[in-house]
Specification:
By secondary structure, the protein is mostly helical. The protein is built from three helices and no strands.
């Protein structure tokens, strides 16, 4: 388990800030890849649902 997975479960905003900091610092080996993938997939699905909702209004 990644060292940042616990932060993900407790405080999503802190987890996001940590992942952004790691990316900016080029510390890609430290990134919580599993949860990052899940969040990006969810973001894409939410954006698609919003677009579909706006188009059907």
């Amino acid at each position: 388990m990644n060292q940042y997975a616990d932060i993900y479960e407790r405080d999503l905003n802190a987890w996001i800030e940590t992942q952004v900091r790691l990316l900016r610092q080029g510390q890609t080996r430290e990134i919580d890849v599993e949860h990052l993938i899940a969040e990006l997939e969810d973001m894409g699905k939410n954006n698609l649902r919003e677009l579909e909702s706006r188009l059907s209004s």
